[in-house]
Protein: Glutathione S-transferase family protein
Organism: Luteimonas soli
Amino acid sequence: MKLYYSPGACSLADHIVLEWIGKPYEAVRVSREERRSPEFLKLNPAGAVPVLQDGDWVLTQNAAILNFLADSFPEAGLGGDGTPKGRAEVNRWLAFVNSDVHPAFKPLFGTTAYLGDEAMIDKTKDVARKSLRGLFERADAQLAGNEWIAGTRSIADPYLFVVTRWAKGQGVDLGGLDHLARFSAQMEADVAVQKVLAEEANR
């Protein structure tokens, strides 16, 4: 399998999951400029990462890729505790990160620049930070009684780790969210996570 990623993007979650699985894979770094190239657009017309290539088959969309990896390698235990409810919990929290938290960052990543009014742009960023604070409070509450966001370690955890890193870099107030801080420290101490972060930083 081949994963196309950009450093620091949400593809970091897939990169970590592949490392957790422990099977051979190739990670291909692509820059923002390369994502606009005709070659890459053949893989993903949206010009976005992650992209997973398995033989001649190409899969896009982060949630789809993460679920495919969990289902393809059940022995890694990243899809829940083996019960339908456990699988649903993984997808509940994966959807929370993918559909609620991730899109809430858009104003912080420049999508409101079209407004052309610095005061208005700053206001959209302030609103986004407040919204994100509320979302991370929900994650913190869930982690109060769980080592991992879905109860057992799963494909949702690397994605939560990614958006938490974004929050720190974008000035989102995470003060007092001790369970989330513990989770982030746990992820940062993980050998596989450290390997992936070093690879994405140095290549």
Q: What stands out?
A: The mean pLDDT is 95.
